[in-house]
Amino acid sequence: MKRFEGRNVIVTGASRGIGAAIAERLCAEGANVAIVARTIDKHDHLAGSLNETIARCARYGTRVEAVAADLADADSRATVVPRALELFDGRVDVLVNNAAAAIYQSLLSYPLKRRRLMFEVNVHAPLDLAQAVIPGMAERGEGWILNVSSASAKHAVGPPFRTAGRAQEIGLYGSTKAALNRETNALAVETYPFGIRVNTIEPRAAVMSEGAAALVGGLVTDDQIESMEAMVEAAIALCDCPLDRTGMICSSLDLLDELDRTVMTLDGTAAYPGGQRVWRG
Length: 281
Description:
The chain is an alpha/beta fold. It has a single domain (8-259), classed as NAD(P)-binding Rossmann-like Domain (Rossmann fold), CATH 3.40.50. 38% of the residues lie in helices and 14% in strands. The protein has helices at residues 17-28, 50-57, 74-77, 80-87, 112-140, 171-191, 210-216, 228-238, 252-259; strands spanning 8-12, 32-37, 64-68, 94-97, 143-148, 196-202, 206-207, 225-226, 249-251. Strands 3-2-1-4-5-6-9 form a seven-stranded parallel beta sheet, sandwiched between helices. It has a two-stranded parallel sheet with strand order 7-8. Helix 8 (228-238) packs across helix 9. The longest helix is centred in the middle third of the chain and has 29 residues, at 112-140. It is globular. Pfam families: adh_short (PF00106).
């Protein structure tokens, strides 16, 4: 029996990058997955779409369904969990809040409209979706919620402060992720009596998703990059963790070291040749 066989999962931000890779690995491990993004078809300026993720996952023989919703809009995101429950016979076992709005800009000129959008997607949407799945999880006495965070939540060290590259432009994005981390911990406290595990995972190094490559491509070297497979391995470890692992803010590679966990390929059939780092062949 595969590890996630028979389990129903929601993964947001699954048209590309980390979300698409998590969805693929979960399908490979036997899960039925509802994948969520703003549109089903290709985005206007980034590679990837929900249709492409479905094509990636189809070979594993589990059920994968696309759910289009704008997580920046409260009414739109309110349709996600009811649709998943409709698709999966009234049960969601795992929620992966991966979607994020990442608008990098100096705080000295950051407009209110963009600030609101960032908090809607990165803070309010994960909590709204969690609130929607928790009643069913609590009734069954089991469930997993995973929020994908970022090391940018940590405070800048100084003075003097690093000012090169994106250092002066990630403050608001990092603020939303810091809020998400605190939200995770608080939610874990409240849901622990119901058998629900709530954690965050963040990359320890850069993961070169399509979005990340567009933002920082060329600014990082191989030793500053971790493999997509490593990030996914750490994520799925928290989608099936024991009850004593909840309320934690975890770094991908640190968690893999702690668990002494082998990084597998996205199809789950073999050890990934590069392990925690990108394999160049």
